[in-house]
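Practice problem 4.
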């Protein structure tokens, strides 16, 4: 009879097992998040993106499975990121008239939000004594992962570190958004969505879609525009920052 380690070794060699495990973990975490809906603080902490990441990291650490092997197993999910991003155009199209009416306030909010995101990351990193390479890596933390990795690589940062900062930013944004909106009494779905998209990219947009279709539409718009704007001005911001400091 095979022992449990031998059975696990055989199971872990099947790539689909990691795909199934990821879906199962997210389903359990999402159910836990919904169960905690009457309790705002526990619900914020139990956001399924955060709890799923923690649980999967624990599983990989305990089993000793390399991340590269896990990623190969869940690659179909990675392939769906592109179509999922394109699908954000549907709620955007549904709110096209409202976007036209608010185009100038939205563009001003985009410019301020993008600059605050980069400068606050650089300031915090400078106060914590991060190296120049780490500061470059943390600066594009508020844009979606592929763009942040490309920008960090082009500017001389660490690509892996940049991806880590982006994921951490997204999770923090998704967890803290609802309590902050209640604390600051921000009730507008447009303001909530645009803030989430600028500050917390795709993870924030997924949280916005849970809140309402309008919130998700404006989060998707902000995420896309912030990616473009950050790509255009990041080098200027970094040049000015390192010239001053």
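Answer key:
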């Amino acid at each position: 009879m095979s022992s449990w380690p031998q059975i696990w070794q055989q199971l872990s060699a099947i790539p689909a097992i990691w795909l199934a495990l990821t879906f199962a973990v997210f389903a359990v975490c999402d159910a836990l998040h919904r169960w905690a809906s009457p309790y705002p603080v526990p619900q914020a902490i139990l956001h399924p993106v955060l709890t799923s990441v923690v649980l999967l990291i624990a599983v990989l650490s305990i089993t000793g499975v390399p991340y590269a092997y896990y990623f190969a197993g869940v690659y179909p999910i990675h392939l769906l990121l592109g179509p999922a991003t394109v699908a954000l155009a549907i709620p955007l199209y549904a709110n096209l008239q409202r976007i036209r009416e608010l185009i100038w306030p939205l563009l001003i909010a985009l410019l301020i939000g993008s600059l605050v995101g980069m400068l606050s990351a650089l300031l915090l990193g400078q106060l914590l004594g991060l190296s120049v390479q780490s500061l470059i890596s943390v600066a594009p933390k508020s844009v979606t992962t592929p763009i942040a990795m490309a920008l960090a690589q082009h500017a001389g940062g660490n690509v892996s570190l940049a991806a880590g900062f982006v994921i951490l930013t997204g999770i923090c944004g998704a967890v803290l958004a609802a309590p902050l909106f209640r604390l600051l009494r921000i009730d507008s779905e447009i303001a909530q969505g645009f803030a989430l998209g600028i500050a917390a990219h795709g993870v924030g947009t997924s949280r916005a879609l849970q809140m309402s279709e309008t919130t998700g539409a404006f989060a998707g718009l902000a995420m896309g525009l912030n990616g473009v704007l950050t790509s255009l001005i990041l080098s200027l911001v970094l040049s000015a920052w390192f010239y001053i400091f």
